[in-house]
Structure formats: structure tokens, C-alpha cells
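Morning, I've got a small favour to ask if you have a moment. I owe you a coffee for this, so here goes:

…
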Amino acid sequence: MRAMFDRIAGFYDVMNSVMTAGLHHSWRRRAADLAQVGPGDRVLDVATGTGDLALELSRRVAPGGEVIGSDFAEEMLTRARAKAPAAAAPITFEWGNALGLPYADGEFAAATVGFGTRNFADLDQGLREMARVVRPGGRVVVLEITTPTKPPVSTFYRLWFDHAVPLIGRLAGDSDAYSYLPNSVKRFPAPRELAACMDACGLDVHYVLTAGGIIALHVGTRRAGNA
């Protein structure tokens, strides 16, 4: 998995824009809004990739705040660090394993993950770790692709993700990585199931669907007394 993300890092941003018609930026802005952080807050972005969600968060915590962007793919982090000078508040991009975050309990006002939970080797453990490092009353925000169930969006989704995306991946030079994308979405829990997983981690959860049901944003507020 790590090798795959290192391999695609050079064209990851371009592919995101092509696959979503540039809409991924607005989805990340909405995720940053849902984190409900403000000036002076310290925030963690897990599986930060090339850092776009971390940059959005930096605009919310400036002045005086800080963002940590954590990822296990060094090539992704290299591209993220190149964007850091444009941040509104200091960002540190560092290597980290989402299943064992090297941070203290309650260290952050919020923790976010954008399009990364599908790649957790152990979803429940990754969610537990995100909840653990957020202070009581803080938020865990999960932005993820999901499978729409109602036509015509569901029909378009199947055509796009099952056929067009792998083709685009082949043209970009990595068909395996972009065949993995639709398969990983199919294996991922449905929105209600993901909400139940987050609830079990000590979070009061609600979620919203957007883009015709293709995108889910889950927000969990950490309950007091939960590790």
C-alpha cells in the first residue's frame, strides 16, 4: 500500500482534479468547516497525502494555531511540504502510522482524514486513534467516497468509477492504483455502518451526503470520559 502511494504521488493532485472535476477542493473546505476549529487551535490531519486538507485547516486556525499533517508515504509528504509555505498557519508534515499515532491523549482540538480511511489496514483501530488524540468536545471528521444507491447518480457512478477511472489510471501510467480506488470504495462500510464504528470509538456522530450521494462527511464529537 505504501509503495503504491509513493508511486502515484507525482500525479496524485492532477488525478484528483480530473476524477472529481475539481470538486474535491470544495469537499475539503466543507470538511475543514465541520471540524469547527478556530484561531489558536492545534489540529491533526491523518493520511494527509499531498496536504490539501491540512492547508484548508491552516486557514481556520490562523493566527496562532498549528496543523500537523501525518502520512505513511514519504513521497506524498515531499509534495505536501512543498505546499507548506502557502499555509496561513504553521504546518508540520511528518511520517506517521494512522494505527498508532505518536501523540498524547487529547492533544488536538480536532482530527480529520480526507479520502484516507479506506486505506486503513484496521478501520476501527484508526478511528480509535483519531478519537484518542482529540480532547473531549473536539471533533473527528471523516471525508470519504461512498457508493450512491439511487439512479441516475448510481448509474453514472458505476460507469465512471468501474470503467473510466481505471482507464484514466492506465493513461497516467498506473492502472493498478486506479483499479484499487473503486474496489476500495466497494469494500468500505456504508455511511450508517461507518457512523456506528465511530460511535463505538466514543464519538457522538452525524453525517451528511453530498454530490448526489457520492461523498459522505462524518462528524464525531468526542464524549467526555472516553479514551
In short: The chain has a mean pLDDT of 90. The chain has one domain: 2-222. The longest strand covers residues 134-145.
